């Protein structure tokens, strides 16, 4: 299994802050986004944007980054600290 | 990372205490401002990604120390509910000379704003809204 976390406006739009998925369900973050978009129109709309950032195990990654068992994947809108 | 306010003087003291090598100290404080994108701000909520935030700020400090000729780096960022004029972030850098301290402080703030996982939700007179990046 791996965990998926959502933050900021994206979490509000999805009405979801975290979920768990079987390790075999996605080879990389790109695959994961495709699978999540297929859940329903709300998820499709919220995740159908270039304006997403992603992290695996607390490090920013590109969509090609692989996902393995036990990973913590985070998907979020552009950051706005400072 | 903290919800409580910070004392700039105490943070400055920790940068200069037992430090006679550095002739320059540059500090930056970011605050909640009254108007953003044309709307009056009442207060805001700062969300973050616990675990990744600490790691991101630690890595930024380490990278700054590699990239610039600087000595001490201090970064404090608040999260949670903040009101108008509250302090949000502190970045302090010490160096032998001012050029490196200024450059590193500016670089740290730019990188923090584009890489550290924080999200601002503002309450305005017209309701709440997430600040877009």
From TrEMBL, chain A:
GO terms for molecular function: nucleotide binding. Signal peptide: none annotated. Gene3D superfamilies: 3.10.20.30. Pathway: Cofactor biosynthesis; molybdopterin biosynthesis. The keyword Nucleotide-binding applies. Pfam families: ThiS (PF02597). It comes from the Bacteria. GO terms for biological process: Mo-molybdopterin cofactor biosynthetic process. One of its GO terms (cellular component) is molybdopterin adenylyltransferase complex. Keywords: Molybdenum cofactor biosynthesis, Nucleotide-binding. Belongs to the MoaD family. This is Molybdopterin synthase sulfur carrier subunit. It comes from Opacimonas viscosa. The lineage of its organism: Bacteria, Pseudomonadati, Pseudomonadota, Gammaproteobacteria, Alteromonadales.
Automatic annotation (TrEMBL), chain B:
It catalyses: 2 [molybdopterin-synthase sulfur-carrier protein]-C-terminal-Gly-aminoethanethioate + cyclic pyranopterin phosphate + H2O = molybdopterin + 2 [molybdopterin-synthase sulfur-carrier protein]-C-terminal Gly-Gly + 2 H(+). Keywords: Molybdenum cofactor biosynthesis. Gene3D superfamilies: Molybdopterin biosynthesis MoaE subunit. Coiled coil: none annotated. Pathway: Cofactor biosynthesis; molybdopterin biosynthesis. One of its GO terms (biological process) is Mo-molybdopterin cofactor biosynthetic process. Its EC number is 2.8.1.12. One of its GO terms (molecular function) is molybdopterin synthase activity. It is an enzyme of class 2 (transferase). It comes from the Bacteria. Heterotetramer of 2 MoaD subunits and 2 MoaE subunits. Also stable as homodimer. The enzyme changes between these two forms during catalysis. Belongs to the MoaE family. PANTHER family: MOLYBDOPTERIN SYNTHASE RELATED. This is Molybdopterin synthase catalytic subunit. It comes from Opacimonas viscosa. The lineage of its organism: Bacteria, Pseudomonadati, Pseudomonadota, Gammaproteobacteria, Alteromonadales.
């Amino acid at each position: 299994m791996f965990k998926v976390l959502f933050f900021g406006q994206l979490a509000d739009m999805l009405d979801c802050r975290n979920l768990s998925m079987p390790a075999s369900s996605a080879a990389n973050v790109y695959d994961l986004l495709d699978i999540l978009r297929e859940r329903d129109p709300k998820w499709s709309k919220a995740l159908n944007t270039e304006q997403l950032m992603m992290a695996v195990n607390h490090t920013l990654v590109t969509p090609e980054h692989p996902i393995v068992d036990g990973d913590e994947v985070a998907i979020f809108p552009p950051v706005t600290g400072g | 990372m903290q919800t409580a306010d910070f004392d700039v003087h105490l943070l400055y003291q920790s940068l200069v205490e037992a430090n006679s090598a550095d002739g320059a100290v540059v500090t930056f404080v970011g605050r909640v401002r009254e108007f953003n994108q044309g709307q009056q701000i009442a207060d805001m909520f700062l969300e973050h990604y616990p675990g990744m935030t600490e790691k991101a700020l630690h890595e930024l400090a380490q990278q700054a120390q590699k990239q610039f000729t600087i000595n001490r780096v201090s970064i404090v960022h608040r999260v949670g509910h903040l009101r108008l004029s509250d302090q949000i972030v502190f970045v302090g850098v010490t160096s032998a000379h001012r050029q490196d301290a200024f450059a590193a402080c500016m670089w740290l703030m730019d990188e923090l704003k584009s890489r550290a996982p924080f999200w601002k939700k503002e309450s305005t007179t017209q309701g709440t809204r997430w600040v877009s990046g």
